[in-house]
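Hi R.,

Quick one: here's the Glutamate synthase central-N domain-containing protein sequence you asked about.
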Amino acid sequence: MLLMPMINNKKEALGSMGNDIPLACLSEFSPLLYEYFKQLFAQVTNPPIDPFREKVVMSLQCPIGPEDNILQPSSKQVHRLWLKNPVISIADLEVIKLTKHRNWAAHVIDITFPASEGIPGFLNKLKSICEEANNAARTNQIIILSDRHAGPDRVPISILLALGATHHHLIETRSRMKVALVLETGEAREVHHICVLLGYGADAICPYLALELASSLRDQGILRVVTEISRGWKC
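And here's the predicted structure, written out as tokens:
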């Protein structure tokens, strides 16, 4: 329902009704953290702002990497990696991991922990992520938070929680402006997820699970079948 319209039509799925899902704080189903940042509102016909129809005042392009004080301009402000879109592909992420741009280096932080450690392991891991990011900021220009190692025996911390904790910890240690925060996550799969992550300090996001699913559907020919069926319905 969510990925097919984005893959086939290059736009978010639209519905005729508003969002009537109960508030996350009242739910008994343990919703994702992103659900706590949704606002209930009536769906109207006003088109959303986008970088195509409003390109004069809006752009998705974003520079990432160390930056200087904007009140004291210098040449370092323009020597950054320039992304046309904050959502990057798996191949782009691999390039960033191996980048040597201006002698930069990237450091990958695993945000998973052993399931056997329970809540204490969760809290200890969250603390260690912040400490590792702070140490990495001294010698690296790009920090990548990754949940790639999630599995039956390893539980991933929510990428939103890990990002928020890391972002604010680096601000407190005066290291946030020295690095770019890039996310490698299978948790983000909706437009709303991406927006919340960007709002909490992410510079770039690779939603690898959604991208791998899209690639798998393409290889299986499912996208072509769905497209043909949708055309038949329109006729």
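The first helix runs from residue 3 to 9.

Cheers,
M.
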